[in-house]
Amino acid sequence: MISIIIPVYNQAKKLSLTLASIARQSLSDWEVIVVNDGSSDNPEAVFADFCAQIKIDNRFIFLSQENQGAAAARNRGYQEARGEYLFFCDADADLQPDALEIMLQALVDNPAASYAYPSFFWGKKLFKVGPFNAARLQAGPYIHTMALIRRSDFPVNGWDESLRKFQDWDLWLTMMEAGKQGVWIDKVLFKITPGGSISSWLPSFAYKLLPFLPAVKKYRRAMAIIKKKHVLA
User: Fold this and answer.
1) Which of 64, 100, 118, 228 could form a disulfide with 189 if both were Cys (CB 3.0 to 4.6 A apart)?
2) Percent of the chain at pLDDT exceeding 70
3) What does the pLDDT look like over 178-215, one tens digit per residue?
4) What are 28-54's pLDDT values in tens digits?
C-alpha cells in the first residue's frame, strides 16, 4: 500500500483538486493522510465536503496539529502511515491519473532504487528533472518532494524539523549519504500551482534570474545551511 501524506497550511481552496486527482488514480491500494498544520482557512470543512461527495471513502484520514511547519506535518503523517511506500504530496498538486501506478512500477523495475521521481510542471514551466546524479544533487536541489519512497529506506528520524526550507534537498542528501538513490521517470506526472506550497518550494532558475529579491536572499541563506549540514563545498 502507498501512504499519501499531505501537509496543508492555509491551502483549503486548492486541497479539493489534489484530493480529487488522488481519488481518480488507476491504482487503488493507497491511503491519504491530510495533516492540517494550524491552518486558519478551515481545510477540515473542505476535506469533509470532499469525503461526502465520494461517499466517505475510508482511505482518507484527516489530522490536525498546532502550526509547526511542513517537516513536522510530514513527520506526523509518517507516524500514522501504514503503507510500505510513502508519497509526500503537496496540497496544491494535480496528479495524472496513472501517476502512482507509474512510480510504483518504476520501483518494481528498479529494485536498487529507494525512490522514484518524475518530471513535472511548476505553473507553466516544465521541469524535466533528469536522471539521478550525486554530483548534481550535492550542487543544489533538483528533485521535488513528490517522489514515491520505499518506507524501508526512509530515514529513521524522518524529516529535519529544524529546517524551514530545502527539507526535500536535505532528505535526498541524507538518503544518498546512507547509500540510497532514486530513479527518474521521464514523464510528467503532476502539476504544482505556484505560490501555495507549504514548503515554499522555489525553483533554482528564479534565484539565478532575480538575485535581488528578498525571497532569493533567503533561498541562498537556506542553501548555505544545507551545505554546512552535509559538508558540501
Assistant:
1) 118
2) 90
3) 999 999 999 999 999 886 555 555 555 554 555 556 76
4) 999 999 999 999 999 999 999 998 888
Question: What predicted TM-score, i.e. pTM, was given to this entire model?
Answer: 0.91
CB 49 within 8 A of CB 20: no
Which residues, including other chains, have CB under 8 Å from residue 170's CB and lie 6 or more apart? Answer: 159, 160, 163, 226, 229, 230
Beta bridge partners of 115: 149, 182
pLDDT at 192: 94
**Cβ-contact 175, 155 below 8 angstroms:** yes
Ramachandran area for residue 216 (φ above 0: left; ψ -120 to 50: alpha; else beta) = alpha
3-state SS, residue 124: coil
Query: Residue type at 220?
Result: R
CA atoms within 13 A on the CB side of 191: 11
Q: Output the pLDDT for position 175.
A: 99
Fold type of domain 2-229: Spore Coat Polysaccharide Biosynthesis Protein SpsA; Chain A (3.90.550)
- Read off φ and ψ for residue 70, nearest 5 degrees: -60, -45
Specify the DSSP element, H or E, that contains 159: none
- Grid coordinates in use for 76? 506526523
Q: Are 121 and 188 in contact (CB under 8 A)?
A: yes
Give the span between the Cα atoms of 92 and 196, in whole angstroms: 6
> With left for phi above 0 and alpha for psi between -120 and 50, is residue 200 left, alpha or beta?
left
